[in-house]
Design a protein that fits this description.
mainly alpha, about 90 residues, 2 helices
């Protein structure tokens, strides 16, 4: 039995990380150009900073799970062992 071509989980995982990094860079850019005089009392800035913290935490989780993703890809890529033929039970 030929092995089933596995989904490229590691590739998709890398894409998720890259997409998250792009979002984080865009958010950092927006925060860096935020007007200074109102920054201390602005709820929008606080929300941006909170969102940035969430993206950093997401990147940390992605990195922490990357090894497991590679192991899953390797497991899925391994050839499947054919099950022995078992005769049907006649009742």
């Amino acid at each position: 039995m030929p092995a089933v071509k596995p989904p490229a989980l590691a590739r998709d995982w890398a894409g998720l990380r890259a997409q998250t990094e792009l979002r984080l860079r865009a958010l950092n850019e927006e925060i860096s150009h935020y007007p200074g005089p109102i920054a201390r009392c602005d709820q929008h800035l606080a929300a941006l900073i909170e969102h940035r913290s969430a993206l950093v935490a997401r990147l940390e989780r992605i990195d922490a799970l990357a090894g497991a993703v590679r192991e899953i890809d390797a497991l899925l890529a391994a050839e499947e062992v054919e099950a022995p033929q078992v005769p049907a039970v006649v009742r």
